[in-house]
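for ur thesis appendix - Tripartite motif-containing protein 54. copy paste whatever u need, i formatted it the way the template wanted (i think)
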Amino acid sequence: MNTMDNLEKQLICPICLEMFTKPVVILPCQHNLCRKCANDVFQASNPYLPTRGGTLTSGGRFRCPSCRHEVVLDRHGVYGLQRNLLVENIIDMFKQESSSSKPAPERKEETPMCEVHQEEKINIYCVTHGVPTCSMCKVFGAHKDCEVAPITSIYQSKKTELSDGIAMMVGNNDRMQGIISQLEEACRVIEENGRRQKTLVCERFDQLYSILEGKKREMSQKVTAEQEEKVNYIRGLTQKYGDHLEESCKVVELGIQTMEEPEMALFLQNTKPLLKNTAHLDKVERGYENMDHYSVDFKKEGTALRGLDFLQDDEDEDEEDEDGEADPEEGEGPQPVTAASVQPSAPQQSNSSPSAAKSAASS
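the 3d part is after this line
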């Protein structure tokens, strides 16, 4: 080791004070320098000389840092100095020897000691209590009445048991991973089925809305038709009464003029057409304007709508059979969601026309 230390001291650069860095140049005075360090000293000694890429390219001079001998350089500068290949080889050998001569760190095997008898190594195993212990504990200590076994045999059996347990746990982990994959797939299938069933439910409710809208439109048209018929009849009757009133006013005016006739024969002649001027007009029956016969009661239908729910398994089969018989053109396949068909019955209304409700009366 002393030889290696002495050799390392000889391989120290006087400029950077570290081991020579290749390439190593030798000066005319036989001292060695790193080429980089020699270039730094050369530039410091010749600050005004032109440089290229940080290196002097023309001749110059500097002094050896070890012996102060003046070194004269040619136009190549420090690159004109001769390399010391011997020193470079010695550096390589020194580094290789230093790396191989370092002892590898030894792994110290620590043998556990007994906590009660601190100078005794743990060398037996208490089978009764399931703990390792020392021989002194078996002879004089807490395990003197216990069953013991050599620690090596217990070590092998426990190691085998642990190995089997690890293998079993690895197998269980694989199975659990498979179960997790199945559960994730089940979640994906459930989400997909849920979306499909919600779509079916919305479609069935849209069909129900369509039925209700159609029935509402049909019943409203019935009410509107009778309403228009009655209104038209009343308006026509009003026109007739107006015309009769106007004619009656003219008759009254003519009758007043006839009353002033002094000639009896002429009076009797003018009175006869006036007395015959009578007309028969229709009379509106009491309650003719009433439309209560179009009243509806959807209590049962409302109860049925509020009771809408998903079909059970047995009901689902019956519903499929009924759907197949009622509408064979519909697509095949089970329909998991159905809505009860609720169609409110048409309100009972009078079949008699407005003209039948009229009775002739003399005005």
